[in-house]
């Protein structure tokens, strides 16, 4: 548990955390009053929401009319008159739209764009996110006003002193983070100007938010009672006593993604904090959330009912909806049959297992619908455990999909064989991300993170006739500005995969740029690449090119030093040279990069911001 200190700020501030999920979304918040201990609260009333309670969330559904205007959001979309009007006026119902924002690197064989309900003509996924976040802000504002004395005046007292914490799946990268920030501006959360406005937005992975939730609500202190021991120390130890607990994996099982993050607790000696955590393995993100169980159920029903009068679009759609809302959650064992109640007493087709308006399914068939998701989690847990330098002892399952007893029991059974204890918090785990995102803001428990990929830049390599790797690339050889023969396809690693990075640690390497004209050196633009292959420091970009992706471009204005450059001569060629360093900061939840150079003996740096390239 976290022992919070009173807020030390000079003025009142509101922190809003939006958990925009694939299937359900929610808001948590914290009012920071000077001298008061912060307390995390949840928005538990929404328009048209039937069930009011501490675990209240709304469906991530949006209706757009034929003019691309929003007509209903959340629980409103399930009201009878809205459904009727939507059908009459041909509105577009958007579900699972969050998956349109996913990184292309998460796209696997089991999901394609065609599998996700299409967006309305002229409406982008970023616009949908903006519309949805604008709605969540309206709901939060209304709830806070209605829940406090002198509500209007109370909310007005915040002014622009409102910060936002926006969570996203572990597998979302710079492009998606940039899209989230753009959507926040489009939603009117912050103005589209100035660094100060952008600093009011904090981004956090769903895995890290879930860790904060578990620490503040679930994990007992004795889980972290012993200092973690490195695996290498354990291997060299002759001690045969029981191994002390070391670290945990947080599995946030949601509607679209399943996010896994591994942590150990820092003793506090290095950070000066009473409690802090280190990420001890690269995060994992799998597109195997609960909606994919439903998607497999839809395909299964179409195949099972082939030849039956009930194999019609309306019947299959209704059966799939019932499966998603009830059958999937209640399913607990492959030994017992389960039922989809979709019609009336007169609906029957015994040869297909349909009696009295319900379809009977064998438990073993339903189990197969869960299997890909279960296998994916087990594989990801084993991958994180094997890559962690610290022994993992516990797995904590949170998120909306964690409510599935079958998922939980299967993970318990399969992972216990590897010595892992699987636990599920006895509370509202679907609040984990929203509450944890607020805790991330006020408690800031993670001090060290682990690089998921190797990051670096494409470089020029001086050609060496004696080098076999160079000779097989001889056809790419060219003469550069210095007159030397060179190859254009080298890779320079700046931050290797698996490196554990503190928030303040910088990773850098030195480079030079040459050109026959100094005017061409007035601006430096360096493209940062992410390498997703098996090696920590590959040498060549043209080997397994699909393992490399263009992450972002970092710019620096070097016009002042370019004008003072003196010409150099080599191999009969006259050229100009600028020397600089590329710096990567990875300790925060958003990767940052800079270019550093010397100007008349004084260190200069570009702003710590990056321009993200669009995915294709």
Automatic annotation (TrEMBL):
User: Any idea what this protein is called?
Assistant: Actin-like ATPase domain-containing protein
Q: Which InterPro entries match?
A: ATPase_NBD
The species this protein was found in:
Coniophora puteana (strain RWD-64-598)
Q: Which domain of life is it from?
A: Eukaryota
